[in-house]
Automatic annotation (TrEMBL):
One of its GO terms (molecular function) is methyltransferase activity. GO terms for biological process: methylation; rRNA processing. It comes from the Bacteria. This is SAM-dependent methyltransferase. Residues 55-217 form the Tetrapyrrole methylase domain. InterPro entries: 4pyrrol_Mease, 4pyrrol_Methylase_sf, 4pyrrole_Mease_sub1, 4pyrrole_Mease_sub2, rRNA_ssu_MeTfrase_I. Pfam families: TP_methylase (PF00590). Gene3D superfamilies: Cobalt-precorrin-4 Transmethylase, Domain 1, Methyltransferase, Cobalt-precorrin-4 Transmethylase, Domain 2. Keywords: Cytoplasm, Methyltransferase, rRNA processing, S-adenosyl-L-methionine, Transferase.
């Protein structure tokens, strides 16, 4: 008789240093607190997140494994071995929801291939929260991750995204490394058309949360927001 397989739970974590009650339903916290096996990007930050979730177990005795850089089925199968043996596993991201703009998607795909049940738990996604708060088109949108770092390449990409947004009425969403946020805003205000709507969503779900959405022309006249070394998302609709 074959052993029943465990479940891969997708466990959201905080977007900032806030109590879990501020961003996670009690049911999701209860599920996470009952797990003994986790797959994470970084074990050290995962332990900090588990402490934030009031994890009741001894973390030194908890099975916490890091996602490998390689994408071979064998490496992913090793991480999913507890589920194949009948134990539940939690997949955690560095921030927010796992497997969304996140390397954990590879593990989820492999779990499906092996017939392991996948259950997403409710929690914060900075991408969706920013879109919700932007007032931009929520029917058609795309997340592009990080744009090129070089000035010429980044500016060309912004022009292309703005033109695509204008033609398809699609909200374009992207992020930048926090210490380059101000350079990204400079580029947006230099490159984009005055009528293009731009939203900046900073430090979502935290006490420092700040969201503003207005045409580029108004951004050019307004005082600059404090963005240096603060996590933020940029959204535009032409």
């Amino acid at each position: 008789m074959s052993t029943p397989r465990g479940t891969l739970y997708l466990v959201p974590v905080s977007l900032g240093d806030v109590p879990w009650q501020h961003f996670l339903p009690a049911q999701a916290q209860t599920v996470a607190a009952g797990l003994q096996h986790f797959v994470v990007e970084n074990a050290k930050t995962a332990r900090a997140q588990l402490k934030l979730l009031d994890y009741p177990g001894a973390l030194r005795d908890t099975d916490i494994r890091e996602l490998p850089r390689e994408e071979s089925p064998a490496a992913l199968d090793a991480l999913l071995a507890p589920a194949l043996a009948g134990h539940d596993i939690g997949l955690m991201s560095e921030a927010g929801c796992p497997a969304v703009a996140d390397p954990g998607a590879r593990l989820v795909a492999r779990a499906h291939a092996l017939g392991i049940r996948v259950v997403p738990l409710v929690g914060p996604s900075s991408i969706l929260l920013a879109l919700m708060a932007s007032g931009l088109n929520g029917q058609s949108f795309a997340f592009h991750g990080y744009l090129p770092v070089g000035d010429a390449e980044r500016d060309a990409r912004l022009r292309a995204l703005e033109e695509e947004s204008r033609r398809q009425q699609r909200t374009q969403i992207f992020i930048e490394t926090p210490y380059r946020n101000e350079r990204m805003l400079d580029a947006l205000l230099r490159v984009c058309r005055a009528e293009t709507r731009l939203c900046i969503a900073r430090e979502l779900t935290t006490a420092q949360e700040w969201v503003r959405s207005q045409p580029v022309a108004e951004w050019r006249r307004a005082p600059r927001p404090e963005l240096a070394r603060r996590p933020a998302l940029f959204l535009l609709l032409a």
